[in-house]
Amino acid sequence: MSDHADWDDLTRTIREVAPREVWVTHGREDALVHWCALHQIKARALDLAGFEDEDD
After folding, report:
1. How far, in Å, CA of 34 to CA of 43, rounded?
2. pLDDT value of residue 29
3. Which of 14, 28, 30, 56 has the CA that lies 20 to 30 A from 5?
């Protein structure tokens, strides 16, 4: 899941889907992982090699 979406829509979708774990692929990973922790949802940021260098 990317947090490059509208924050309210993103967090509403997470609550509605009620996943066992959220994997954050890019964006403000720390913010979304923190939000998930506050809502007792297991989450982790994935470090995808090469994605930040695509435009180079």
Report:
1. 8
2. 85
3. 56
- CA 55, CA 19: separation in Å to the nearest integer? 32
3-state secondary structure of 8: helix
**AA letter at 48:** L
Residues 6+ apart with CB under 8 A from 43: 21, 22, 23, 24, 32, 33, 36, 37
Q: What is the CA radius of gyration of the chain?
A: 12
Task: Give the C-alpha separation, 25 to 44, whole Å.
Answer: 9
| Range 11-18, long-range pairs (CB < 8 A, 24+ positions) | 11/35, 14/39, 14/41, 15/39
